[in-house]
Amino acid sequence: VSFRSGERATADELKMNVSLILLDRETSDFGGVFTRNRFPGAPVIIGRKRLDEPAVRGVLINTKISNVCTATGEADAGALLTRLADILGARPEAFFPASTGIIGWRLPVAEMAAALPGLAASVDSSSLLALAKGIMTTDAFPKVRSATVGRGRIVGVAKGAGMIEPNMATLLCFLLTDVAVPREELREHLAWCVERSLNRLSVDSDQSTSDMALAFSSGMKGPADPGEFREALLSVLNGLAFDIVRNAEGVGHVVRVRVEKARDEQTGLGIARAVVNSPLVKTAMFGNDPNVGRLVSAIGDYLGNAGLSVDGNRMVVKMGGEEIFGSGCFRLDAGKEERLSAYLRQRVIEPGRKPWPGHDLTIDVDIVMDGSGPGVQVLGTDLSYDYVKENADYRS
Amino acid sequence: VSFRSGERATADELKMNVSLILLDRETSDFGGVFTRNRFPGAPVIIGRKRLDEPAVRGVLINTKISNVCTATGEADAGALLTRLADILGARPEAFFPASTGIIGWRLPVAEMAAALPGLAASVDSSSLLALAKGIMTTDAFPKVRSATVGRGRIVGVAKGAGMIEPNMATLLCFLLTDVAVPREELREHLAWCVERSLNRLSVDSDQSTSDMALAFSSGMKGPADPGEFREALLSVLNGLAFDIVRNAEGVGHVVRVRVEKARDEQTGLGIARAVVNSPLVKTAMFGNDPNVGRLVSAIGDYLGNAGLSVDGNRMVVKMGGEEIFGSGCFRLDAGKEERLSAYLRQRVIEPGRKPWPGHDLTIDVDIVMDGSGPGVQVLGTDLSYDYVKENADYRS
């Protein structure tokens, strides 16, 4: 993968990092997916315009201030890109801006501009780790995933720590590949894969004003089978999605809800999201309580609000593989409750604990309905004291 | 108002209360509104059928077990009503069952039946307070509201403590009036008023499997103006809704979100609910943090997901009457932040603290858009340590 990245701290007080993704040359094969939030930040507004550029060269990323809801947001980002382009002998329009951090503050343009020459000089093509670290805000660890496909690779980095400092919980994701994927095809793959990965995790149930995922293909290693490319891209994005969910300090458990045989895909996703976002289910998971009543109530609440009916007698709910609801009744006994509580306790993510191969730290909730929809899954988290603490204390 | 109520504890271990609402005679002028949850309990299933009865006489209510998702739920409730009817010389079909408590457990029918003679003998028409106390579960105080209309009154009692022990957080509400309101008119008033009161509060964002609101008119004091009756009924229900939200131990603040000039009523309600249910807004309120970014992000997230656009430059957001967002930018300065933080601290509901006339304990968030929809309001709560504690510890 031919790119360079670098980072440079600016004003000490802000502890802002500025990072750069710099392709060796412009590429026309790039794409982006942006937040659907109706009050997007300047980087999202500018990024959407960049999709019409014939070719681009990279991304300028800063932490600490998200450049959202200020009167001068677009001008501030534009001034920085112009300065960067001057230094690199490139076009300002060849760069995407990306920002994460506090909403409502102006970017410190002069201080950031002063850091750009050093940043441009520091770019390094040996590893993405510096970039993955440079874009971290409250992330507990850098997030890098890769996959091989054809004769090349896809590498991705991301940041996002929704459970803590949520105004900084912007999800930024950058994907680089040396496989040759034509522009429109790359955009289709990106939209399809993001919909099935980053858009199927839910920590705070909000999408921020600044979320974006950008992809760039240098094409240096030639083409690959489109189906294999899509599969590889999805695996990279799913890996990053899992990293994001399990990341934050406030997370005690990752909850994976899989729904099969709902009426259709949308209904399946609706049910899965309702369960994952239910404060009552989330607190029960935090308390290692296999609380069937809350699960069933959350499902029934969603279906009722959506005006959908379902034959509850034909729905089966499992946790950790054990049936806990079926034929309209609870399927619990003392032994099963004990096993499930142990199952939940085993899956607690202690600070610093990381999943290792073969050891899955998710709580699995499987819901099988009686329809014909495809299987879907959504990742979420429990709701812990730390979540409240980190979020209530943020700004004070 | 001609009714009687009583309560009687059954098995000590369960600490279950059984209460009875007994009208002096059957009335054909009654109505009910039930949960939309698709997995309703036996009392809701039976209650819906009761709406077709020519006349009814009362309600048998129990706490501790909600009679939901068991194989024998309807039969168990039916057996108890048959026993009650035997004792009173009435028809079993003349009684509604109502239950609140744990999902998935069977009612202790024999123990409850043994308590019914004493309960029937204990009914008392002097005050609703015994009833309001008898149906409490984790409620911190009994909830009774009344209003005068025409030559009569409307009195209402309710229970509901969503912030703690949410499997018991069923919202039960019983309304009694001696104003003569014909059956169909009463049902229309009830549906209209519940939609604008109980259905516009959100604590856990779930509706339980057992929620119900029932209304009975004895007609003894003759008719009243329909518009005045509706207004009085709405005031009783709004009072009960506020009592329910401010009730629970886990609540630090009551948050009232008012939306004006949205595109339409549904959009206004969607925006208000999105703000009230946002975990990020809720934790900020708990932390006494006038966090404009989270408010704006929650609104933008809702609008984006709903596929609605809005001119952010024409939206104004106020907290406690102070403009905090306008013309697409934050309207904050140090002095305003300090005032708003003080405003939030003043409104903390300390344990045992009750609002008194003229002292409003809600945090007001007012959102004015540029559409033509009617004004709407939704009540919610903050998200506190106690919320997580009570909900995570419930069953362990």
> Which residues of chain A form runs of ≥5 with pLDDT under 50?
6-12, 163-168
DSSP strand tally of chain A: 16
- Identify the strand order in the major beta sheet of chain A: 9-16-11-15-12-13-14
Overall structural class of chain A, as computed from helix and strand content, comes to alpha+beta
Number of helices of chain A: 11
Terminal-residue CA separation of chain A: 43 Å
In angstroms, what is the radius of gyration of chain A?
22 Å
Shape of chain A: globular
Helix content of chain A: 25-40%
Mean pLDDT of chain A: 87
Oligomer: homodimer
Q: Characterize the biggest β-sheet of chain A.
A: 7 strands, mixed
Biggest interface, chains and residue tallies: A-B, 66 and 66 residues
Helix-strand topology string of chain A: EEEHEHEHHEEEHEEHEHHHEEEHEEH
* Strand percent estimate of chain A: 15-25%
List the helices and strands and how they pair.
2 copies of one chain form a homodimer.
Chain A: E1 3-9, E2 17-27, E3 30-34, H1 42-50, E4 56-62, H2 73-88, E5 95-99, H3 109-121, H4 129-134, E6 143-149, E7 152-159, E8 172-177, H5 183-195, E9 201-202, E10 212-217, H6 226-247, E11 254-260, H7 265-277, H8 279-286, H9 292-305, E12 316-319, E13 322-326, E14 329-330, H10 334-346, E15 362-368, E16 376-381, H11 385-393
Parallel strand pairs in A: 4-5, 8-10, 9-16, 11-15
Antiparallel strand pairs in A: 1-2, 2-4, 3-10, 6-7, 7-8, 11-16, 12-13, 12-15, 13-14
Helix pairs in contact in A: 2-3, 5-6, 7-9
Describe this structure in words.
By secondary structure, chain A is an alpha+beta fold. Helix content of chain A is 34%, strand content 24%. Chain A contains 11 helices and 16 strands. The first copy, chain A, has helices at residues 42-50, 73-88, 109-121, 129-134, 183-195, 226-247, 265-277, 279-286, 292-305, 334-346, 385-393, and strands at residues 3-9, 17-27, 30-34, 56-62, 95-99, 143-149, 152-159, 172-177, 201-202, 212-217, 254-260, 316-319, 322-326, 329-330, 362-368, 376-381. In chain A, strands 9-16-11-15-12-13-14 form a 7-stranded mixed beta sheet, with helices on both faces. In chain A, a hairpin with a 2-residue loop joins strand 12 and strand 13 (322-326). In chain A, helix 2 (73-88) packs parallel to helix 3 (109-121) and helix 5 packs across helix 6 (226-247). The radius of gyration of chain A is 22 Å and the shape is globular. The two termini of chain A are 43 Å apart. The model of chain A is unreliable at 6-12 and 163-168 (pLDDT under 50). Chains A and B meet through helix 8, helix 9, strand 14 and helix 11 of A and helix 8, helix 9, strand 14 and helix 11 of B.
